[in-house]
Amino acid sequence: MSTDEPGGAPALELRALGKTYGRGAGAKRAVDDVSLTVRGGEVYGFLGPNGAGKSTTIRMALGLIRPSDGDALLFGRPVSDRQALRRVGSLVDGGTFYPFLSGRDNLRVLARTQGHDGARIEAVLERVDLARDAKRKVKGYSTGMKQRLGVAAALLDDPDLVILDEPANGLDAAGIQDMRTLLRGLAADGKAVFLSSHLLHEVEQICDRVAIVHKGQLLREATVREMLDQGEALRIEAEPLDAAAAALEGRWPVERIAGALKVRARRAEAPAIVRTLVEASADIFHMGPDDQSLEEIFLTMTRDSDA
Amino acid sequence: MLDAVRAEALKLRRHRATWMMVWIYPIAITLIVAGMLVYGAFRAHGVPAPAQPALEWIRESTTLWKLPASPPGRFLIAGFCAVVFAGEYGWNTWKLIIPARARWQLIAAKWVVALGFLTIALIAADLITLIGSWLGSFQGDGIPAGVTLAAVLEAHWQAGAHALLPIVYTIAFAGLFAILTQSILATVILSIALVVIEGLWPLIGLFLHQYVPALTETLVRVLPFYHLANLKTWASGAGLTMPLGPDAVVSMSWGMSFAVLMGWILAAAAATQLRFLRQDLN
């Protein structure tokens, strides 16, 4: 089941979105030509280091700030469309709440603002494991509790698109595990989940598709599998190492790592590599896949971009 | 819209600022009335005071309604409005509620709650005053002959109506300052400055008229300061004549001052909405 519009419009679509702060010589391009789509039933990760433009992009998608260029569409409609915007639940800046109200009263205020009676308040409090502390004033909450209340607020009106800015911030290991289960559950219900994060290990486990953003620009958008495949490499332990490296360098990118070679090549190329090494009179002690994490791929891409 | 107002009321009804700057009216009046009743119960009965004319008694009973238009009353209203309108910037909560509703509704809800809370507080304080006067009549000086419920209600209705415009005017400018400065403190400072300028306006007019008489007269007629004072004095029966020089005075009708002041209020409210509609909320 998917929450996309019958006409096929995705839950979230960004078209050449850009934002420039300031004017003239002092102008700063925070987001530049970002285009992506998020569909119902998927968890989409928006990755980037601090200051990459993730939060600015999210704010434009929620209508909090106005884009300098491009469009943000929700369910095929402009972000200024109130009906479309009301189908979105969001958590921005780790959940900002009225500090003088309790967690439950904050959700009541939000429910009223959204125009419903808040019948789901207790259910969402239970879902984020905050029911016991719901009476306490938010100013006494820990960062993790505020984060969980933020997720509860995002889910309050049973939205079709959930936009979360760094949802795992401040959560302990158990909290992160719960968050992972929660987000996958939302996607399983057909909802679209768009989350920004710099916790790449988490994104790798939760997301179906990811986009890597750096210095305001989208470097790559792909499924997590495609991303990981792109970084496929083999780890080879051979002697003499220099001779092995020299033999391979002509055909494959080779990198020396702690007494071994990391060769950027697919598994199917392994026999050719073995033959090359044998021809070069190198002894092979070990050859196996060198699984790259999303983190390594991300670092490589952002480093290349900097270069 | 009703839900937006309910949300705003839920948010603010128990806030410390509401207790200190709005609910303070009925609370303070309750304490004063209770104190006077206790004092009346224990004081030695001496020579009774001469009977007060009914009209004077009724007029004195409406004194409370002069508070919101007085400088201290305006400071309280401005302080409360600073929290209502600028608080969201300090709490960083606009981003929590903006996606849920049209921006103009969020500002309109703040207007309704600010005016509604103040009206409720002042009406409650007024009722407590009247009940206190009625209870006090059993302790000595009775209610003068000729004071009827209908006359009391009419006088209080009029006093309340006259107090409304200064309240709305104060809300309008405090709201505008809050959206422009995005700061509670800056809003309070600007609102206090506005009240001070209003108080000094007759002197400023006299001073400026020596150098630029035509411009000064225009400013007095166009800016809201004279008109607010004029409406206050019209509430007591006659308009305000503001001398600007030996042969120059400004004296305007109630209707003209009402129209000019309404124009300023509408302009401030519209500017607040327009600015907020285009504001980036980071």
Automatic annotation (TrEMBL), chain A:
Signal peptide: none annotated. Residues 12-240 form the ABC transporter domain. One of its GO terms (molecular function) is ATP hydrolysis activity. Pfam families: ABC_tran. Keywords: ATP-binding, Nucleotide-binding, Transport. PANTHER family: ABC TRANSPORTER, ATP-BINDING PROTEIN. Belongs to the ABC transporter superfamily. This is ABC-2 type transport system ATP-binding protein.
Automatic annotation (TrEMBL), chain B:
This is ABC-type transport system involved in multi-copper enzyme maturation permease subunit. The chain crosses the membrane at residues 21-42, 73-91, 111-135, 155-177, 184-208, 252-272. The keyword Membrane applies. It holds the Pfam family ABC2_membrane_4. Keywords: Membrane, Transmembrane, Transmembrane helix. The keyword Transmembrane applies.
